[in-house]
Design goal:
Strand content: 5-15%
Largest sheet: 3 strands, antiparallel
CATH superfamily of one domain: Type II secretion system (T2SS), domain F
CATH class of one domain: Mainly Alpha
Order of helices and strands: EEHEHHHHHHHHHHHHHHHHH
Number of strands: 3
Strand order of the largest sheet: 2-1-3
């Protein structure tokens, strides 16, 4: 449905600017008048301004519904603030629209507002956009609507999003320097092998004696990178594409997730991330009145590992039979014993929600410490690898020179 931007006068004579979805300009005007808003000007919002851009409209449409998590978190926090200030839901959404910008989220909020005005619930309107609003988001909003605590639920959703973004930001910030060092190191080595090494090794071309093995390997590697570097790029691209296609299959995905969990450093880190996400999400859902079975069904889809998701699904079946959550999770080797014990303590004391949130804080802190330790180790490892490669290049060049000096003597 087309989107129109309009300038209009409300019943008090105040000028307002907003957007509306309608089949045509006439339908848009009629829709505005039915709500006591009198349009002055109305025109369609055109996303593509040239014919060349229109050719790629289908491609762009696949990305049109993507909203950044930070943008969604800000919108959720602002909506909770407006509701807390006494704004009705429709009025709060209308107030948010001018502040949202001209991106996809503005159009989605406008359509949600229209759906609510037509009689739909907030949760039902959100569920029409699964790529933007997750099952967790929709279910928590539904529970907030039914219990009359929508403001608290939205604040809690904003807290969850902000904590997840903060953790992701810390991980990215910690990994930025080692990754940058690796990229710079690779570029320097490529420059040495393609420009510096050939000019130096050219003096060995007229030598009638056999060059040492390291020197011959260096010359062949340098020649390959100068002439057939594109083969290396194609091979790397094909390998990445093949792995991605394999991971998307059931067998390949299970194998990949199993290998990740068994890796020495990455495995424990992946498990801590998954358990922390499981604890944070399940605790928030239970605090907002979502039933345990429904909450487990939601949580299993956000842990990011098929083996852990299967363990949660199996535990859900045991819980449905009347077994406690801690005992149900203990049947698998995925969850650490301390996690099982804390869940059982929470169940026995009737404070499972708060215990899950404490577990999430613990594991998120451990993830942060693990990532910091990994980055501290990565920096000297990158330097050591660079030193070994540069040492190999220097040794390969010097060995023939040493042999020539021995012949002269």
């Amino acid at each position: 449905m087309p989107t129109y931007e309009y300038t209009a006068l409300n019943i008090k004579g105040k000028t307002i600017t907003d957007i509306i979805d309608a089949e045509s300009v006439a339908a848009g005007r009629q829709k505005l008048r039915s709500t006591n808003i009198f349009p002055v000007s109305i025109h369609e919002v055109v996303e593509a301004s040239t014919k060349k851009e229109a050719r790629f409209s289908n491609l762009l449409a696949s990305f049109s519904s993507r909203v950044k998590p930070a943008e969604l978190a800000i919108m959720t926090r602002q909506l909770a603030t407006l509701l807390g200030a006494g704004f009705p839901l429709v009025s709060a959404l209308s107030a948010l629209l001018p502040q949202t910008g001209t991106g996809a989220l503005k159009k989605i909020l406008s359509q949600i507002k229209d759906a609510i005005e037509e009689g739909s619930s907030f949760a039902a309107a959100l569920s029409q956009y699964p790529l933007v609003f997750s099952d967790i988001y929709v279910n928590m909003v539904r529970s907030g609507e039914s219990s009359g605590t929508l403001e608290l639920v939205l604040n809690r959703l904003a807290d969850i999003s902000e904590k997840q973004q903060e953790l992701s930001h810390r991980i990215r910030s910690a990994m930025a320097y080692p990754v940058l060092m690796s990229i710079v190191g690779i570029l320097i080595l490529f420059f040495l092998l393609t420009y510096i090494v050939p000019s130096i090794t050219s003096i060995f071309a007229d030598m009638k004696q056999t060059l040492p093995l390291p020197t011959r390997l260096l010359i062949r590697l340098s020649h390959f990178l100068r002439t057939d570097w594109w083969v290396l790029l194609i091979a790397i691209g094909g390998l990445v594409f093949g792995l991605r296609q394999l991971i998307q299959t059931d067998k390949g995905g299970y194998a990949f997730d199993r290998i990740l969990l068994r890796l020495p450093i990455i495995g424990p880190l992946k498990k801590k991330l998954a358990v922390g996400r499981f604890s944070r999400t399940l605790g928030s859902l239970l605090e907002n009145g979502v039933p345990l079975m429904a909450a487990l069904g939601i949580v299993k889809n956000i842990v990011g590992n098929r083996l852990i998701a299967d363990a949660i699904a199996a535990a859900a079946l045991d819980v449905e039979k009347g077994i406690g959550l801690g005992k149900a999770l203990s049947s698998s080797d995925i969850f650490p014993s301390i996690t099982i014990q804390m869940i059982q303590v929470g169940e026995n004391s009737g404070k499972l929600e708060s215990m899950l949130c404490k577990m999430a804080d613990i594991y998120e802190g451990e993830v942060d410490a693990t990532v910091s330790g990994m980055t501290a180790l990565l920096e000297p490892v990158v330097i050591l690898v660079m030193a070994v490669v540069v040492g190999f290049i220097v040794l390969s060049i010097c060995m023939p020179i040493f042999e020539m000096n021995q012949l002269v003597r």
